[in-house]
Design goal:
Layout: H1 23-26, H2 31-55, H3 66-73, H4 77-89, E1 93-96, E2 100-103, H5 108-130, H6 135-153, H7 157-172, H8 178-194, H9 205-222, H10 225-257
Antiparallel strand pairs: 1-2
């Protein structure tokens, strides 16, 4: 009787994995192994689709054809359908009658309100953290900023966005107010559900953010608590201002192309990313 290989199953030919076996050999695969393989496919499919939405490669209101995605990812339609339902529960996907699954649009008002709350909370947390920052923390902030500069030079908005999040996380990590940090985490989670990165959609903000980060680090090192709070808050609100400017410009273009009341325009103009 063949011995089960580590990670394989009884009855398998040595050196042969579950994907290479014949139907007769697969019949001997324990049900638990088959369930694990199915879970892996579901998780992989979910991760790929979620990352595409996060990165902006699947834009708001983009149609998500289950059969086409299944063929592309090399799976049956079942893992795709289950991944889309999971993404729907998280707010990333919605199912529309006669259309099917689409990437969820975002209410611009909700996004702005969350961003304003984040600016206030992060300003306060940065100010509280200032006196607890160590020399090694400031060195780390400058290294992260240098990495962001490199990402901007390489036109890599996703890496830039991750480093941007890491920089602010490194600052507020020294904030001693646990309740303030909890509120910040809740707000960031809400923004993540709206869109993972703003820099994909507002690439010009990258250069501005680099300069603002350097100034923020200077204030953390030698400014007053009040200066840090005001500047950190203003820095976040600059992203809101940049979005508003583009949104207003888009409205003018849409109005010129499609005269009529704003409510009659396509809902996609409301779709926005998060920082």
């Amino acid at each position: 009787m063949a011995e089960a290989k580590p990670g394989g199953s009884a009855g398998a030919v040595p050196g042969q994995d579950d994907h290479d076996r014949t139907p007769a050999e697969a019949w001997h695969t324990p049900p638990r192994a088959l369930r694990w393989e199915a879970v892996n496919k579901q998780e992989r499919t979910y991760t790929i689709l979620r990352d595409r939405i996060h990165s902006g490669s699947l834009a708001p209101l983009a149609r998500l054809n289950i059969d086409a995605l299944a063929r592309e990812l090399g799976v049956s339609p079942i893992p795709v359908r289950e991944a889309l339902r999971r993404l729907e529960a998280e707010g990333w996907v919605r199912f529309t009658p006669n259309v099917g699954a689409v990437v969820s649009p975002v209410d611009a008002t909700s996004w702005e309100q969350a961003m304003i709350a984040l600016a206030i909370l992060e300003g306060a947390a940065s100010a509280e953290a200032q006196e607890h920052l160590r020399r090694s923390d400031l060195t780390r902030l400058r290294k992260i900023s240098a990495g962001m500069e490199d990402a901007a030079a390489r036109a890599d908005p996703l890496r830039f966005s991750k480093l941007n999040r890491a920089l602010h996380a490194a600052i507020i990590a020294r904030c001693p107010n646990a309740y303030l940090l909890e509120l910040l985490e809740q707000t960031n989670v809400r923004l993540d559900r709206l869109r993972s990165t703003m820099f994909v959609y507002l690439p010009h903000r990258s250069d501005e953010a680099l300069r603002e980060h350097l100034r923020l680090i200077e204030l953390l090192e030698g400014g007053t608590k009040e200066e840090v709070e005001a500047y950190a808050r203003w820095h976040k609100l600059r992203t809101v201002e940049a979005y508003r400017a583009i949104h207003q410009a888009n409205e003018k273009v849409l109005a010129a192309r499609h005269p009529g009341p704003p409510a009659a325009r396509v809902a996609s103009e409301q779709a926005v990313p998060a920082p």
